[in-house]
Each structure stands twice: as C-alpha cells, then as structure tokens.
Amino acid sequence: MGQSLIQSLKGSLKYLLSRWPVLLHDAGSVVLAWLGAYWFRFNLDQIPDVFLGQALAMLWIVVPAHLIFFATFGVHRGAWRFTSTYDLSVVIKSVVAGTIVSAAAIFFATKLVAVPRSVFPLHGLFLIGLLIGGRIVYRLFRDGQIRRSRGRRVLIVGAGAAGNMLLRDLQRNSELDYHVVGLIDDDLSKKGREIQGVRILDRCSSIPALCRLLRIELVLIAIPSATAQEMRAVVDYCARAGVRFRTLPKVQDILDGSASSMDLRSVELDDLLGRDQVALDWEAMSEMIRDQRVLITGGAGSIGSELCRQVARLDPQEVILVEQNEFNLYSLTLELESKFPDVRFSRLLADVCDSVSMRYIFNKHHPHIVFHAAAYKHVPMLQDQIRETIRNNTFGTKAVADAAIEAGVAKVVLISTDKAVNPSSLMGVSKRLAEMVGQLNNLSGATRFVTVRFGNVLGSAGSVVPLFEQQIRNGGPVTVTDPQMTRYFMTISEACQLILQACAMGAGGEIFVLNMGEPVRIDYLARQMIRLAGKVPDDEIEVRYTGLRPGEKLSEELFHPDERLTPTSNEKILLAEGRSIDSAHFWELFAELGEAVEVYDHVRAKEIAISLVPEYELRDAGRSDPTAYVA
Predict the structure, then answer these.
(1) Looking at the structure, do residues 438 and 551 belong to the same domain, yes or no?
(2) Backbone φ/ψ region at 232: left (φ over 0), alpha (ψ -120 to 50), beta
(3) Among 53, 142, 358, 401, which residue is least crowded by beta carbons within 10 Å?
C-alpha cells in the first residue's frame, strides 16, 4: 500500500515537472495577483513599507496554498488550446479554496497585522482574471497560427510509438502537404503533453468535436496493433465527424519490412471485422506438412488459393493445385512460383466431378494430404440449379474421396459451411451430404476424413462483400435483404490457418467447428463499407432492403443440436460429435440420387437429397408464409 502511494506521488510529481511552464505561469499569477491586490487597496499608489514587507512575507503561505489546490483540482491538466467554461469553473473552485485556506493561515500567523482584509477577495478576483486571461490569450494566439498555417489539416489518432514515428516522418518530409494539428489518445495521462511540439489533445471520443473546432480534413489512425473493436470505434467517430481517414499498415507488414509508417492505406473491412490473433501450433502444422505432397481442390478459389499460400510456407515437398478455371489457375501459379521459388507446384486443370480425372491425378501424384475446397457457394442461384449443385458439391466430394482411398491418401480435409447445419437452402443440403460422405468413408479404409465447418470469410467468392463493393462503385443502391440478417465472418487467412490447425489435430471422423465469434449484422456491414469508401449511407449511397431470397435465412448456425460440442487445445476450434448415420440406407438412396443426377431428373434429385437431410424437410414443411422462406 505504502509503495503504491509513493509510486503514485512520484508519477504525479514527474507529470507536474513536465508541465513546468504552466506551473511557472500559475505561480507567477499568484504573486502578481497578491501584490496587485495590495496596490489596488492603496488606490494604485505606493504601498507603505510595513504593508509591503508583510505582503512579501506572506507569499510563503499564499503561493504554496494555491499551488496545492491547483494540483488538487487539476488546473494544470487542462489544454490551454481548448480553454472553455469548464476550465473557468475549475479555476474558480481552486482559487476560492486556496484563498480561504491562505486567509485562515495568515490570520493565525499574524492576526491580520498589516494585512488588510479587503486584500483577500481582491487577490482572488485578480488571480482568476490572470489565470483565465493567460489561457485565453494563448488560445487566441494558437488559433491565429492555425488560420495562417498551410497544408492539409491532420489529426493523428494514437500517441504511442507508431504515432510518434508517423508524426516525425510527416514533419521531416517537406513534400507532403500535411499540417498535423494535434494528436488523440485514450490514455488520459498523456493529455496535455506534447510530442515534437504537437499537443496531445484528448481521447478518441472527442474526435467529432475536435474535427469541427480545428477544421480537420484528414484523420490518420496510428494504432497498428488496434483490435477490430477499437478500429470500429475510431471509424465511427470519424464517420460522425464527416472526415476522411487512413491508417498505418499492420504490425506484421511493418516488422517484415514490406511496409513503413509512411505507407498510409485505407481502412479495410478486415480491420473492422477481424479478430485478435490466436496462438497457433505452427510446429505441429509444420511437422504435418513438411516434405509432404499436398493436393488442394478448388486451388485457385478464394479459400483454396489462401490454403496454397499457407501450405507453401511450411516446406512441403509438392503442392498440387486442382482447378477448373484456367485463368485463375495460371495467375495463382505465377504468384506462388514468384513468392515460393523453392517449392514445387503442379497445376492441373480438372473437374472434381470427373472421377476418371480424379483417379488419374491421385494415382500419378500420390498426395499425402488433400484439402477439398472445390464447391459452388452462391445460395440463391444454386436454389434453382439442383442438379449442378448436387453434382458438384456432393458427387464431387464422392469422386475425391474414392480417388483418395484408392491412392492411399493419409488424410482428407473437407471444407464445409455453416449452411450445412439445419439447411434451408439446397446448397446447404448438398454440403451436408458432402459431410456425410466424408463421415461414412472414414470408416471404410485407411484414409482418414476430417471435416472443418465455418461461416463466411471476408472477400471470398461466395461472400456478400464483393457484391457490396461493386454496388458502391456503381453509386448504389446497396441491397440488403433484411435489416436483422446476421452472418458469421472471419478473414480468409485466419480461416485457412485454423483449417491447417484442425488438420493437425484430426485423427479421422471429426467435424471441427471454427469459433466465429459474434455474428455481424449485414446492414452494419453494408453501412461500414459505404463509410470506408468515403460516402455517407442513406445520403450519398442508398441502402435498400429487398427481402429474403429463396434459400436464405436470417441467421446461420454452426452446429446441430444433436452434435455435442467439446473444446480442443485451440480456443478457436471446437469439436462437434458426428450424428449417427444409417450407412446402408444412405448409400442406397445415394445411388438413386446419382442416377437422378445423371438423367437430369431435377425433381427426383431434390426429393432424394431432402430425404437424406430430414432437417431440411422439417424446416421447409413448417413454413406457412411463403415470404418467410429464408436462407
């Protein structure tokens, strides 16, 4: 207790010493006001020697008494640049308290001999005038400087090492037309201090008021380690102020030398919806991938391409990309070969639904590990394309599984989706069937099948984000199905890292569910994207509600009520206990489903698919209002 008090006093003393110009001004004001009160008492004439001597002697009481109350009330903490009525009230309170205490002390010390009683109220009035007057004069002077200054008026958010570095670089670079007016930081102990001659003004919540007062044109966010929640708060404040904003590169980009503090960039959706980094067992993942042949289907898609990048970092013997889009495959291969020159890449144009092609590729390359990421994802469109949906998502998975078992693959990781849980769309049904194929095949041979299930990833081909970006570029409207619709989101890089982590954990037969955090309202997502584009929602860009489309639902689920969840060694990965499946019944109907797909019997294919996923049938049968048909 004693040590903490001493440390607190030391901290306060250190801060006071850092404010020595303010202390000097305030102490000088006490002296001037005290002597001025005597001079005024004697009608602006010469003060008699006996009274002058007593006045000077009493300064040893008056000055310390007032300084103590200045510190107590925090007079020295206010930023003179923003002197307001609040500062006036603080000054008055401290002066009144200091005057009363000093008067009492002088009375006991001198019985008011040679100390006129009128001196005390005069001293208080003069002191209030000097303290406030000095601050107002300084504010007017600084306002004049600002009006005369040139350059784009900038406010920096963050007064830590990054903010200091950014401020230094801006001041040194004469080619940049920036005038840094002040800094902002939520650490109130920094308020009022200066960095390289620029004052730390207030906390982040004051951004709207400061932007109006100081005519700020640009806010620079210098908090590279900020959490998504902190970034959302700052962006909201900037949006309220109606000012543009940019941010520093991410910490990792600065540390690895790919970016510097001067590489200011737009705030991205990842900054607002991303989550705190979780500790990953890179050693286990590296041990799993090192010197192995890894095959990735849908290798040039959004998930598949990021899996290729993550796998290539872990020293594989070979990465085999299977993709049916030739241009995407070509472009990705060029990128990978440039970034990872020591890794061998094989690029193969193939359709996962072609069982002959899959068997040939698997038997030729003999992969040790397979990541099956190839899938159709667009829910509303697939609702009317039942044959192609089932063929690609379900029978494509079956073709990959059969080829993997025949080639003796050690482990197959199936990439699934939250739409497979209690599906209300045929896309979700097709992915649930794919999960069941993996679960049953895990029991039929040496190949182990692991399923990883998660929600939306930012920027993926099936995400709403690219659509919103296009609509914003076109000037709107941005179409949101329902203001209450929510979805789970994570970044592509985080999803792929957790897929690798789950693969390292899985022994076979597991359904791993990625912890997606809190769901995000699509309406909020749309409005934030509009703000990030420098526009005002509902003013410059309309947000239009269109109603739910076939196959959509208001919110997604990550696990079925019958799937008991248990934690794993990684807090972002949960293990869902698979539901029991009647194997004989499933494969019998699955064969009939294959026949319906082959002969383009859409009606029969839909009937069989739904019968294999009864939770879809129950949900669909329970809807009486056709407008409530959700995805």
Answers:
(1) yes
(2) alpha
(3) 53
